[in-house]
Automatic annotation (TrEMBL):
<dbReference type="InterPro" id="IPR033121">
    <property type="entry name" value="PEPTIDASE_A1"/>
</dbReference>
<keyword id="KW-0732">Signal</keyword>
<dbReference type="InterPro" id="IPR034161">
    <property type="entry name" value="Pepsin-like_plant"/>
</dbReference>
<dbReference type="InterPro" id="IPR001461">
    <property type="entry name" value="Aspartic_peptidase_A1"/>
</dbReference>
<feature type="domain" description="Peptidase A1">
    <location>
        <begin position="88"/>
        <end position="441"/>
    </location>
</feature>
<dbReference type="GO" id="GO:0004190">
    <property type="term" value="F:aspartic-type endopeptidase activity"/>
</dbReference>
<keyword id="KW-0064">Aspartyl protease</keyword>
<keyword id="KW-0378">Hydrolase</keyword>
<dbReference type="GO" id="GO:0006508">
    <property type="term" value="P:proteolysis"/>
</dbReference>
<keyword id="KW-0645">Protease</keyword>
<dbReference type="Pfam" id="PF14541">
    <property type="entry name" value="TAXi_C"/>
</dbReference>
<feature type="signal peptide">
    <location>
        <begin position="1"/>
        <end position="26"/>
    </location>
</feature>
<keyword id="KW-0325">Glycoprotein</keyword>
<comment type="similarity">
    <text>Belongs to the peptidase A1 family.</text>
</comment>
<protein>
    <submittedName>
        <fullName>Aspartic proteinase-like protein 2</fullName>
    </submittedName>
</protein>
<dbReference type="Pfam" id="PF14543">
    <property type="entry name" value="TAXi_N"/>
</dbReference>
<dbReference type="InterPro" id="IPR021109">
    <property type="entry name" value="Peptidase_aspartic_dom_sf"/>
</dbReference>
């Protein structure tokens, strides 16, 4: 396999299977290798977006928030729905002999799970044009069932499950606020990958991971519309693939993503990022998501005068970084102040609604005509959001605002700043779970 510019992300020596061809880039390869896998986006978020497409963005985020803010009935964190919770999917290989599975990539989920051969309601076809595969534990010579009295199960549930006896599988069941559900049992099997050598070439490798075998799916999980084989979660819990590999001393508990929302792709990387260097801000402890301390917001260099309570962190308030959400949601007061500042020099613009999005006609370059919005976080980390990132095209010379008024979206989320993948695009975002920090820097994610 030829070296890729994505290898700039550096240093684990674990390369999960790349799904898309890499575009030509002029950036030099790093001396240290990394584990990366390339992802597809289910639908482009901006370029030539039509009315149906922006409707899909809103519908996606609505379902996402229903699960993001809901409580699961077991302590696995928020499991994601492959058809509409996350936007990015990739290809992995499991078992011996290895078989291919398409899985959603989601920073809000804590386990890897795939649909199981024993599932009656699992989709066999996908509207995404993908060939789906059901995992069969008995067809893999390296696969084994995780029993309820084994360490993984006991640690996951904080003790033995009620009714646990010899040779009873370790089960999981998650119910969501929208009525969807996933039920199954845990298995351990080989995850296959390409190990990167020092010269950018690869050699086969594998590691043992424990993941869910989905035996019954309820609600939208049984739909074939945008079905995938499962989901790979990059949450913080010990059940995640990243946590398992880190516990086995194969990787550092660090991952990164670089997302291109225009063409609909990007990369996720596992392991320490050697270059480029990124500044970081602390993750807030004991929170189920990637919560951070937002300190202030400026528009075009002028700091907005906002009351201190809008930046407070707690239950149903604070700031969450979530690549599984498309748009960015701001509390009503913050949204109104940001919009007033953004359009301060364009008071002659006439607005119109497109499926509840605020849209307008503009013939020039939005980057030349509108200000950059800067979100300032603890430890002097700033997120620079350029006009082409907070606006998205919706036809010829028509732009819509990618920020949304959170006060009109959901009762539980009205006081939350939720930053989605539009403002995270073309940035290398690093989640350092060993040091409990997150950071980012501007980066060309087409490479």
């Amino acid at each position: 396999m030829a070296p890729r510019a994505a290898l700039l992300l550096a240093a684990l020596a674990l390369l999960l299977l790349l799904l898309l061809p890499a575009p030509a880039c002029s950036a030099p390869a790093a001396a240290a290798a990394t584990g990366v896998f390339q992802v597809r986006r289910k639908f482009p978020a901006r370029a030539d977006a039509g009315g149906g497409n922006i409707s899909a963005l809103r519908a996606h985020d609505g379902r996402r928030h229903g699960r993001l803010l809901a409580t699961a009935d077991i302590p696995l964190g928020g499991l994601g729905l492959p058809t509409d919770t996350g936007l990015y999917f990739t290809e992995i290989h499991l078992g011996t002999p290895p078989k291919r599975y398409y899985v959603q990539v989601d920073t809000g989920s804590d386990i890897l799970w795939v649909n199981c051969i024993s599932c009656d309601q699992c989709p066999r076809k996908s509207g995404l044009g993908l060939d789906l595969t059901l995992y069969d534990p008995k067809a893999s010579s390296s696969g084994s069932t995780v029993w309820c009295d084994q360490g993984f199960c006991v640690a996951t549930y904080g003790g033995k499950l009620p009714g646990c006896s010899d040779k009873v599988p370790c089960e999981y069941k998650v119910m969501y606020g929208d009525g969807s559900s996933t039920t199954g049992f845990f298995v351990t099997d080989a995850l296959h990958f390409d190990q990167v050598t020092g010269d950018g070439q690869t050699q086969p490798g594998n590691g043992s991971v424990t993941f869910g075998c989905g035996a019954q799916q309820g609600g939208d999980l049984g739909s074939s519309n945008q079905a995938l084989d499962g989901i790979i979660g990059f949450g913080q819990a010990n059940t995640s693939v990243l946590s398992q590999l880190a516990a086995a001393s194969k990787v550092k508990k660090i991952f990164a993503h670089c997302l291109d929302t225009i063409k609909g792709g990007g990369i996720f990387a596992i392991g320490n990022v050697v270059q480029p260097k990124v500044k970081t801000t602390p993750l807030i402890a004991d929170m189920p998501h990637y919560n951070v301390n937002l300190k202030s917001i400026d528009v075009g260099g002028t700091t907005l005068q906002l009351p201190a309570h809008v930046f407070e962190t707690g239950e149903k308030k604070g700031t969450i970084i979530d690549s599984g959400t498309t748009l960015t949601y701001l509390p009503e007061l913050v949204f109104k102040e940001v919009m007033l500042a953004v359009f301060n020099k364009h008071q002659d613009i006439k607005f119109h609604d497109v499926q509840d999005f605020l849209c307008f006609q503009y013939s020039g370059s939005v980057d030349d005509g509108f200000p950059t919005i800067n979100f300032h976080f603890e430890d002097d980390l700033a997120l620079h959001v350029y006009p082409h990132e907070y606006f998205f095209a919706n036809g010829n010379d028509v732009y819509c605002v990618g920020f949304q008024n959170g006060g009109s979206q959901s009762k539980d989320g009205k006081d939350i700043v939720l930053m989605g993948d539009l403002v995270l695009s073309n940035k290398l975002v690093v989640y350092d779970l060993e040091n409990q920090v997150i950071g980012w820097t501007d980066y060309n994610c087409k490479c």
